[in-house]
Design a protein that fits this description.
Strand order of the largest sheet: 3-4-2-1-5
Shape: elongated
Structural class: alpha+beta
Number of helices: 3
Strand content: 25-35%
Order of helices and strands: HEEHEEHE
Number of strands: 5
Radius of gyration: 23 Å
Distance between the termini: 68 Å
Helix content: 25-40%
Length: 109
C-alpha cells in the first residue's frame, strides 16, 4: 500500500496541492566587445593558463570558470579577476570561449 493511498484513507476530503514548478531561465553571460586575454605562465615551475580581461560581473566570471574547469576536467581557481587553470590549455579554452561568443586574444609563448 502506497503512502498516498494511506493518507487518502485517513483524510478522504483532503485535496493534495499541485506543485508549482518554477521555470529557470539559463543564465546569460555578459558578452563584451574587448577580447579576453588568454596567456600562459609558469608558476612554481608548473604550467598555468590565465584568463583575464572580463568586464562583466564577478559571479558571471566564476560561472565561466566552473564551466571551463568541468569541461576540461582540470583544476583551477578564480582569484583577483582572473581564472587560473592548471596546465597549458590555451587553444582549447580559446575555442570554448569563442563558441560561447567571446573574442579572445592569445598572449605569451
Amino acid at each position: 500500500m502506497d503512502l498516498s493511498e494511506q493518507l487518502k484513507k485517513l483524510f478522504p476530503d483532503h485535496q493534495p496541492l499541485e506543485e508549482e514548478k518554477e521555470e529557470t531561465l539559463p543564465h546569460e553571460l555578459f558578452l563584451q566587445k574587448e577580447p579576453m586575454i588568454c596567456k600562459y605562465e609558469k608558476r612554481k615551475g608548473k604550467p598555468t593558463t590565465i584568463i583575464s580581461g572580463y568586464e562583466g560581473e564577478d559571479e558571471d566570471f566564476k560561472i565561466l570558470a566552473k564551466e571551463i574547469k568541468s569541461k576540461l576536467a582540470v583544476g583551477g581557481t578564480f582569484k583577483d579577476g582572473e581564472i587560473i587553470i592548471q596546465g597549458d590549455y590555451r587553444d582549447r579554452i580559446m575555442k570554448l570561449l569563442q563558441d560561447k561568443g567571446f573574442k579572445t586574444k592569445r598572449v605569451g609563448g
